Amino acid sequence: MKVLIVESNPDLGQVWKRHLERQGADVELVPGQEAAILALYGTAFEIIVLDLVLETGSALAVADFASYRRPDARVIFVTNTTFFSDGSIFAHSPNACAYVQSGTPPEDLAALVEHYAAGR
């Protein structure tokens, strides 16, 4: 299973990456929109774990590009804000499959990744 993590906080991204790799995933971690777009050009990811609030670039632009370039890739949005807490993210991003808090335990995030990757 190929997973792209787009997370501006390198420590948090590394925690998720290591946990997913222990579960057998092939994981690429990038810090922002530009690196995510470049990664999506070269690799067919099954799941994208995408921080909704990136330091550089736009998470919605990444999700939109992924829906065009990698239409089979599902997006799990993570955030530490109440932005889109009403569930409207699913109306803005057709490839969104989950919306969770950044503080979600890594094992729970890994379970979500595995669940949504299995459906592909």
Tell me briefly what this model is.
With about 120 residues, the protein is α/β, with parallel strands linked by helices. The chain has helices at about 10-20, 35-40, 60-70, 90, 105-120; strands at about 1-5, 25-30, 45-50, 75-80, 95-100.
Give a quick set of tags describing it:
five-stranded parallel beta sheet; alpha/beta; 120 residues; 42% helix
What can you see in these coordinates?
The chain has 120 residues and is an alpha/beta fold. 42% of the residues lie in helices and 22% in strands. A five-stranded parallel beta sheet has the order 2-1-3-4-5, with helices on both faces. Helix 1 crosses helix 5 (106-118) and helix 2 packs parallel to helix 3. The radius of gyration is 13 Å and the shape is globular. The model has no long low-confidence stretch (mean pLDDT 91).
